[in-house]
Amino acid sequence: MTIFDLIIVDGELIEIKKRDKGKPLVGKDERTAIEFIEKYWKEIVEKWVSFFVYKKRVRCTDIKTKLK
Prior knowledge:
This protein is α+β, with helices and mostly antiparallel strands. The chain has one domain (2-52).
């Protein structure tokens, strides 16, 4: 499993750090995951805060468009 840490400073995504636990993402899968995070990081953070901080229920987002 690969864990991505998003480093955000003053409301901007500064860095994406990768930590591997067990079998890591490699090659195309890793690049796709990073591209996804770079495109949707604001929505990811918003849902994370809503769920873990405010204990709100969040809905899944159905993404039907390609990244590129």
